[in-house]
Every structure is written in structure tokens, then in C-alpha cells.
């Protein structure tokens, strides 16, 4: 674990949490781990079909990688292209009532932008919190521990963009 932490730049604490399924790594973290292990990220997240860069490239629902929260009530569908990992990532977030998606701090300067499509989602970033409802966008630091919680009685849906900035 020590060697992987040094090669990847991912803390031993984060590696341990991922191993015990207590943390959901971002695509950027998975990318760093894949590089450190010499495994192509596309092998982990699905293949990228080569083709005409000017063509419309549909990504069909069943081929989209899905991550689930520890409580099983939150689903993150990775909709960003693999080649943007570590710069931008975006997800479709589906939260069942009572669902919580907790995350340790990402790299320094990271921010998240959550647009609530349906329902009510509460964001806590560090010691601050705010509630978003349909069509609200909440922007917050993600370089501190943060969590998203479905604050309603029905399913909540959001679009989440993670923006990695150089410190």
C-alpha cells in the first residue's frame, strides 16, 4: 500500500477507505491508480471506440460506468470522457430518499458544481451547508471533506461537475 501510495500520489488513508468500500474515488483518483499500476484506464471504465473526431459519438446508457455510495442509495453515472480525468469530470447523480454521498477532500483547489434537476439535495462542504432544489446550482470547495444528502422524501437527481484546479 505504501508503494502504491507513493507511485500514485493517493494517500494511504484514501487507499484504505477505497479498499474497505468507505470511499468512492473520483475518476481522477482511479486514473492515478491505474497509471501507477500500469493498467489502462479504459480497461477499468470501458473501451473508447476510435473514430472520426468530428463525428457524433453516442455513449449508450448501458455502457456508462456506474459507482454506488456505501449506503447503496446513491448512484453516480460517469458521463465525462476518460481523457478529461484529472481536469474535469461530470456525473449524473441519482439519490434515493435518505441517500448520502460522502467524500474525503479531493486535491487542493478542487471545486464541485451541482445542479439539482429534481428533488432536494443538501450540500455540506467543510462546516458550511446549503440546500438546493430543482434548477438550483450549488458551487462549493471539494478540497475539504464534503457530502451530498437527499433532503427530500422522493428521488433526487443532479448533474455534478468536478473541476480540478492547480493549487
Notes on the structure:
The mean pLDDT is 85. The chain is built from four helices and ten strands, in the order ααααββββββββββ. It has a single domain, classed as Jelly Rolls (Sandwich), CATH 2.60.120. The strands form two sheets. Strands 1-2-3-10-5-8 form a six-stranded antiparallel beta sheet, with no helix packed on it. A four-stranded antiparallel beta sheet has the order 4-9-6-7, with no helix packed on it. The longest helix is centred in the N-terminal third of the chain and has 11 residues, at 27-37. By secondary structure, the chain is an alpha+beta fold.
Key phrases:
6-stranded antiparallel β-sheet, 167 residues, 4 helices, Jelly Rolls, 4-stranded antiparallel β-sheet, 19% helix, globular, alpha+beta
Main sheet?
A: 6 strands, antiparallel
Which range does the strand content fall in? 25-35%
Order of helices and strands: HHHHEEEEEEEEEE
Adjacency order of strands in the biggest sheet: 1-2-3-10-5-8
Number of helices: 4
**CATH fold-level topology:** Jelly Rolls
Count of DSSP E strands? 10
Mean pLDDT rating? 85
What structural class is derived from the secondary structure elements?
alpha+beta
Rg over CA atoms: 16 Å
Taken together, the total number of domains comes to: 1
What is the CATH first-level class name?
Answer: Mainly Beta
The helicity comes to: 10-25%
Q: For the record, what is the CATH homologous superfamily label?
A: Jelly Rolls
Q: At CATH's second level, what is the architecture?
A: Sandwich
Shape: globular
Q: For the terminal residues, how far apart are their CA atoms?
A: 26 Å
Query: Which runs of at least 5 residues are low in confidence (pLDDT < 50)?
Result: none
